[in-house]
Amino acid sequence: MANPRDIESAGDGAKRVSRRSFIKGVIGSGIAVSSANYLFRTSTLLQGQQPAVGGERLITLNVNGQQRRVDVMKQETLRYKLGLTGTKLGCDRAECGACTVLIDDVPHYSCSVLTHTVRGKRVQTIEGLARPDGTLHPVQQGVLDEQGFQCAFCTSGFIMATVGYLKTNPNPTRDELAHGISGNLCRCQDYDKILTAMMRGAEIMRSAENVRKVNHA
Ligand code: FES
Ligand code: FES
To answer: Which residues have CB under 6 Å of ligand 1?
Structure first.
């Protein structure tokens, strides 16, 4: 029987996409929301190419485990050079957390981090959470299980903030987690559901870790 949450958006006999699959795309890769304002300027250069504009310089970034060569301006912030649309731009002034990424496992607002300052550090975005075979990160799975979103614009930021927080406290109380991710805002104000989803993610993560320990005992 069809899941009642799978409310299909029908369009004149054209392709039918369930809301659940649409959101799954957002949570998994962040590719679904694309307006011109949110597109990143891809600036990866091939080896040996020179930066086109004076004042830019070529640096190597470690993004989602891959070495990326990008040309950056000194004053340019991290969010604009990743070319990964899962990282959303909300306020662009370090207030909302929609742009959260992990730098060396610590959540940061990427709209406010100068790109050249992350050389030699590990940057992880929402696109780098799922396994290569497509298995979602436990926190992503928790969001799907609990449908912890309305428009989902804030979701990738909340997921990254939660993943970062759980690295320091894998078994938080609801209050602790709420405090831990309080730097993220939801314009839909769906906080209770978001928190339930993140707590579910933490639970899945602990179960997976216990299974891993048993298998390696
Ligand atoms: S867009 Fe970076 S904190 Fe809001
Ligand atoms: S679900 Fe809409 S901004 Fe959070």
So the answer is: 89-92, 94-99, 109, 111
How far apart are the C-alpha atoms of 138 and 112, rounded to whole Å?
Answer: 27
Q: Does the CB atom of residue 158 touch ligand 2 within 6 A?
A: no
- Distance (Å) from CA 191 to ligand 2 centroid: 9
Distance in Å, CA 67 to ligand 2 centroid:
32
> pTM for this structure?
0.76
The answer to whether 33 and 85 have CB atoms below 8 angstroms apart is: yes
Q: What are the per-10-residue average pLDDT scores of the chain (217 residues)?
A: 36 44 49 32 36 65 92 82 84 95 96 91 96 96 95 97 98 98 96 98 92 75
